[in-house]
Amino acid sequence: MGRLLDQPAASGGGLGITPASTGAFIRTLRHELNGEVCDDAASRAVYAWDASNHRVVPLAVIFPKGTDDVVRIIRRCAEAGIPFTSRGGGTNIAGNAIGSGVVVDFSRHMRAVRQVDQAARTALVEPGVVLDDLNRSVAAHGLTFAVDPSSHSRCTLGGMIGTNACGSHSVAWGTTADNVDAVDVVLVDGSHIRLDAAAPASISVIRDMAGIRDAYLGDIRRELGRFSRQISGYALQHLLPERGFDPARAFVGTEGTCAIVVAARVRLTPPPAVRVLVVAGFADELAAAAAAPALAWSGALTVEAMDHRVVQAFDSRPNPGWRPILPRGTVWLLLEAGGDNHEDARSKAAALATIADDHGAWQVHTFTERRDMATCWLIREKGVGLTTRPAGGREAWPGWEDAAVPAERLSDYLRDFRLLLDRYGRDGVLYGHFGEGCVHIRIDHDLLTAEGRAAYRSFQQDAADLVVAHDGSLSGEHGDGRARSELLSRMYSNRILDAFAAFKHAFDPQGLLNPGVIVDPRPLDADFRLALTRPPGAPAGFAFRTDDGEFGKAVRRCVGVGACRKASGGGMCPSFRATQDERHSTRGRARALAEMLEGHLAADGWRSKDVLSVLDLCLGCKACRSECPVSVDMATYKAEFLYRHYRGRLRPMAHLSMGALPLWLAVVRRMPHLFNGVLAMPVLAAAAKWLGGIDSRRRLPRVATQSVRRWFRRRPRGTSAEPVMLWTDTFTSSFAPEIVRDAVAVLEVAGYRVELSPVGLCCGLTWISTGQLGVARRVMRRTVRLLDQAQPQLPIVVLEPSCAATLRDDLPELIDEPAAHRVAGRVRTLAEVLHDRALPDVDAAPVHAIAQFHCHQRAVIGTDLDRDLLHRVGVTVEAVDEGCCGLAGNFGFEKGHFDISLKCAEQSFMPHLRRAEAETVVVADGFSCRLQIAELGGRAAVHLASVLRERLVTDGASPHQPRLQDGR
After folding, report:
1. With contact defined as beta carbons under 8 Å apart, do 307 and 284 qualify?
2. Is this model's pTM higher than 0.70 or not?
3. Percentages helix, strand, coil for the chain, rounded to the nearest 5?
4. pLDDT tens profile 507-538
5. CA 469/CA 491 separation, integer angstroms
6. Where are the domains of the chain?
């Protein structure tokens, strides 16, 4: 990635080592450790960020494989005076997972659930275990770890311990500190101890804790532990004799500043057998906040608030999908009731609804269906991302992200906080844990100018004074970090600050662990991300309409939420799931692009080979476009980068062969027998793959030997039905023209008269995916011109999902003109033109199908109509919604990608195929998906059109037999 700009020494505790000693330090660690040590520029760049406003470039990133590795790392750091920062999922919003020394990522290897004790209801876990993975492990025992932050799909237990994470159910089950029994830690001298209520007083740190408690007893009782969400600072109240002197609970929330967690014993909870969700709508946030305490005291499992603008942002996302109708209101409280059975849960829900009515709710809805409840929680959990880009395109930021006050004072605090925002001319969308007085907000500060950052600093100070005036806490969940540690002096007395310093010194006398956080804090506006410092260079390829035409603003969409790091659920991000490498997550790629844009790299900029390597394993699946809560579209960003990277330069052979595939296939279709004969000869096939930059292990598909247009011209056609235009894409025409015949038959039985699209049109997808945007634009202009002139009102039915997504989504971005928007608006999938049509009755017996929906369709268009259509014709669908097939157009064909492609398939459709019965139909509309399924799964997949023809059209045709091709 070129040379990273030098980081000021003060930003990380003062590295006093020379380049030579740095090299020796890294070499020693590589020799001694079982885990990986990465000091390449790409790794350092992507680990310079977490989910905060801050950036600190580390010396190296280390992935330990066990406690022995951790001991060796900390001993070497202590010898060299190098800071040590612990990191899990990197979702920290306060800037407490970045540092200038070594950043140690526990999430790659130290992620085991070592033991589950069902009788004691505890689990022994390593710090890198992801919360969802822990809960999957203990679910078989009828238990769960009840703390559930919205980042549960990627946050680690070590990170939760570091910040004392809370979550939606904390009104019922408390914070992380309330659910930790013991913590195994490594101290800076390399010693390994257990912190729990039974820790021997002979241990030096335990003795020091007792001494600190005794020295500051009155101060601790007055200032700490006043209410449940007082998270700021150290939780020394747990050392008080009346609280049982619990070193483990006192340690939780220390943000990696005291010791290194290598294991923890956590408490597990039996979840309710049945849950019901009551959603209460209120006039505004003040009314909701006023009602929240009574609802929390009534036994609700959750009292969560979300603003109407969160819902608006959710609805405005690409392909948002279905959601339930919410009750009338502008702010809603999500009130969960749980019971041993349906009657019990519904009875408790009815009581909550009554209390909400009595406390000013406008309207109350009760949801009992799992789909309804899951969608409401999905919207709430995506709040941290959705509020980053609210309606209007403004950029909003964390910093004052999770202040908390006693719940009974929340309404008054929010009134005064809105006045403060107005005074600074700022706005933000509120949501959060109203039942415990904790408020989340992203504020539209100007952090891109010096004046804006100065105003931000002033706002933070005034906001701190305001929350203190309401007896609150700077942090109610995420810790103080770099964002708020400086402000602790406005919240606590000097005596308490001295107690904090003594507590840290007892563990870390050298000040090596996460320096600049809580004790001896860095200024809250230090180490900020920088504004764009140099022009982007070449003209942009895409319009980036939703980002004011700025590629930099598009990249800044990534605020580090880390949803791309989830291990399961949805398609994002297949390559990260395959490699477990942060560089290959959507977030990691966005960070690398931001580093390049913001001038932190050497002069290579857009020519950077390191940025190219970070983007190389992006499959272009577009899952991030819809699943990322901020709609980061890495497929588009990659295409933009490739366009500028190779501008005026020689491109890889894979770009020339597969990028220009429509041109090659136009020639090959004129001599299909010759081409197929070449592929049948191993030597010539191998030569063709070598010349085309194609992996030698790939099988190249045979080309169809009959012309779909010739067949269409010769067939009888009616004239009275409603007309539609059928798009004949390159892939279907060249490799599976029988699908066109099936689609025509189905459309006609549905009452349509089919016309084929004009000859020689192309959506431009292959040129886009290889970054040849100039060619793509020329191809698209011709397509737009002919389609806009040819029966301009006709719907355009596109059978290949990637082509449909390109025409609907990419076309207006590359040609931002009225004609292009008109054409994009006419594009329909087969399911879209059939969903409201009368179809013949199906006499055939019901069948079961596995459906591999194309990634682009899931991201841009959606699959609900396809599922409904299959259900209408008697097909029960088992949808593969995980990951990506792995072929992904040109990606899986290119040299160097085969192994990743295979891993992606194993994490997607392969397990489904292995479980499937022989008679199970496999449905896949995407050409790449069908190829991958056939090659790796050994099954023939069929298009939706073929399934529908077999079920609806009684002409004896079968989707399992090719009808237009011979020789296949």
Report:
1. no
2. yes
3. 45, 15, 40
4. 999 999 999 999 999 999 999 886 554 555 55
5. 9
6. 9-105, 287-386, 545-649, 661-829, 847-952
